[in-house]
Amino acid sequence: MSTHRTINIGLSEEQRNGVGEILNRVLADEYVLYTKTRNYHWNVLGIHFDPLHKLFQEQYEQLEQEIDDIAERARAVGVFAVGTLQEFASLTRLSEEPGQYPDARTMIANVLHDHESIIRFYALISSPAMSNMAILARMTF
Ligand SMILES: [Fe+2]
In CATH, which superfamily holds the domain spanning 21-140? Predict the structure, then answer.
């Protein structure tokens, strides 16, 4: 017996695959940002250690929930959610700095940059120029 069934949510298979592709790219970005934020939670230094340690924790906890929501939305449109570090690393548009432990101010600038990059991607996929994707994006974000 097949475990697959036809999904009837008003989107073609091509559209659902398109949504899934977008979701997996966002998932990769959010996962990398989650990891970076957790890294900073662990490794931030300086006189503002305590509030920044807590701030980064609040942020990575929010990102963790977003990651789970995005992955489950991919599943809801019938696409497998990427779930390996290799796939996240290959799909993400964000960069990491292995072995580097920036000062607190740079950490904040780095996560701000990444949040802005993700927001720009959301704006791009919602733009009229990507009308097909916009329909899908409105359904999923
Ligand atoms: Fe902790």
Answer: Ferritin, core subunit, four-helix bundle (1.20.1260.10)
